[in-house]
Amino acid sequence: MKKKVILTGGLGFLGTHFADVLINCGYDLIIIDKINPKNKIQKEIVKKSYKFLKVDITSESNVLKAFKKLKKDQVEILINNAAIDSIPITYEKLNHLPNVKNWNKELSVSLTGSYLMIKNFGEQMNKRKSGKIINIGSDLSYIAPNQDLYSDVKNFLKPVTYSVIKHGLLGMTKYFSSLYAKNNVQVNMLSPGPIYNNQNKLFIKKLLNFIPSKKMASRSDLTDGLLFLIKKTNSYYTGQNLIIDGGRTII
Q1: CATH, residue 193
Q2: Euclidean distance between CA atoms 65 and 183, whole angstroms
Q3: pLDDT in tens, 137-158
Q4: Which of the chain's termini has less CB crowding within 10 Å, N or C?
């Protein structure tokens, strides 16, 4: 029987790559996202997946409803990937100090959403005494953002919410790892460094000065890390933050 894997945010930039990897590796993939598939890539991923559920993971009642729908599927792996990224497109002044509405919105997707997924599916794993949970973080779960990188982008600073979310996810990872370890449930975090996604050339040039490998990551650079965290023979690695960043956080 194929292992059942839940991937939240499965239709996003990273999510579609993770979904493709998991499907090609023979997992029964359950995609959870707030949006419906729109483009060709998203529609193809959903078509190949085991199940697709449109769920607002910031709502406890919606997550509980999804849990009840999937309870018989015996989910063995949960990947918390849903997030709102903060990229320099169009921002108001002092965007790094969001109003409470935006603060709550950004934190609710990554932190509240991940917590609610673990509260339901993680607890099921804990009772069953088997499972793996992977939270998708960032190099900014370990370091602070270098705001000088954005000095050429008008009115933009990496906002405080992004750092709070990624550091918070690391805390959540350690908390549930400690709580679930005795019942053979591993909880880890996968933290990518900067990933190439058609960013501004000047930004890339400045960024590479801080990366020892002198290159940005591609999504495929994360593949082996993800597969390591979820493979069956990896049974002793838990509570860790696997950083894949070309060496950025070591200097």
Answers
A1: 3.40.50.720
A2: 25
A3: 999 999 999 988 887 766 678 8
A4: N
